[in-house]
């Protein structure tokens, strides 16, 4: 339940948002000043400065992106999206309070799989391994959200399987928890006119549509006809004036296409407002090792995305290459956690090990479990924060954490030892360690992260002290 202070803050900022519907170029800076007043930790000052500066230049790519939200997005959807951003901003302050009280990581976002079922069978995707038998009930998903909102989590990301196999239940959740934002990683093939109309009614659901490149790359991995189905889904969303983005998995086969300037221009033309980038991870018994991107391809993506952030009107997030901005790995509850279709609470969507399940533990209890505490004590996993991942970049770390915590494989069909999984990543980790060192040692990377080094050391000392106190008292 919201406190009186939270209600007053939300009311004040919502009133300020009313300015945005008239002359956003002039009024965005005014709203940013309101947000600065409420952001006592000053943790977003650089973001405020960047947005405020961009609004003075009509040719600036961020100005063009923000302006497109007023020309391309339905007014009622846009207003609701901004309101939910305010709610998320205000309530997220609880996360730090809970983290300090319970000496554990508390997630800002929860990723959950409504089902393991999928209407496609993509090469190298582990989801098909699970079959169509696992699903979270509507009641279980509702309870996950209820728990999350208690400690300040108002962002829910849906994956699978194909989450839109459960589109009716997803819409029910969006309607019931209309103060939350729901994002789905989807193959897009189940998006139709009726679903889009229903999204316009709830106004708090946004899809990130997976695509592998152009028709040849997409259909070769996802099946013939998938590319055309994806473009049709984007057309429907665009015509309904609904926001959407894309989920891009770059592999050894498509990195040069995915990272090209021409391809990003194509995505922008289709109406994409954001792009979430991942690199291929060989999870699952039938994982294709030859799809792992080379170190040079990963560097290519690193360089290209940073160029695009200065030139193209699309918001980008690179799950692996942006470690320098978020102090390494964000999994293990540090920013997010994953709940699979069997209810297993995992530190990451790519780390299929767990010592907790929603059927016998609360999310808060899972955050204090041995596996999640291993994550908390070990993060960041590498001083070079371009090597954030305990699987792809620091495989020995994952083996040790699984061993120390006693976590078990959550793969229902082919349980995989951590040693066997990480063995697939050893060569890639070695190659990237050498390639990323030159980037990390550059003055730009050091400047971005120098401020954090002292706070990192203090954070590690505090976590170690908490751990010692806990075990001493026990």
What order do the helices and strands come in, and which of them pair?
Elements: H1 4-17, H2 24-38, H3 45-54, H4 61-71, H5 75-91, H6 93-102, E1 109-112, H7 127-130, H8 138-150, E2 155-158, H9 167-176, E3 181-186, H10 193-202, E4 205-210, H11 215-222, H12 226-239, E5 245-250, H13 255-258, H14 261-270, E6 274-279, H15 295-311, E7 315-318, E8 336-339, E9 345-346, E10 353-354, H16 363-367, H17 370-378, H18 395-405, E11 408-409, H19 418-423, H20 426-440, H21 443-473
Parallel strand pairs: 1-2, 1-8, 2-3, 3-4, 4-5, 5-6, 6-7
Antiparallel strand pairs: 8-9, 10-11
Question: What is the gist of this entry?
Answer:
The protein has 474 residues and is of the alpha/beta class. It has helices spanning 4-17, 24-38, 45-54, 61-71, 75-91, 93-102, 127-130, 138-150, 167-176, 193-202, 215-222, 226-239, 255-258, 261-270, 295-311, 363-367, 370-378, 395-405, 418-423, 426-440, 443-473, and strands at residues 109-112, 155-158, 181-186, 205-210, 245-250, 274-279, 315-318, 336-339, 345-346, 353-354, 408-409. Helix 9 (167-176) runs parallel beside helix 10 (193-202) and helix 17 (370-378) runs antiparallel to helix 18.
Shape: globular
User: Residue-averaged pLDDT, rounded?
Assistant: 88
Instruction: Tell me the major beta sheet.
Output: 9 strands, mixed
Number of H- or I-type helical stretches: 21
Beta strands, count: 11
Terminal residue distance: 33 Å
Rg over CA atoms = 22 Å
Beta-strand residue fraction: 5-15%
Which segments are poorly predicted (pLDDT under 50) over 5 or more consecutive residues? none
Strand order in space, largest sheet: 7-6-5-4-3-2-1-8-9
Tell me the structural class: alpha/beta
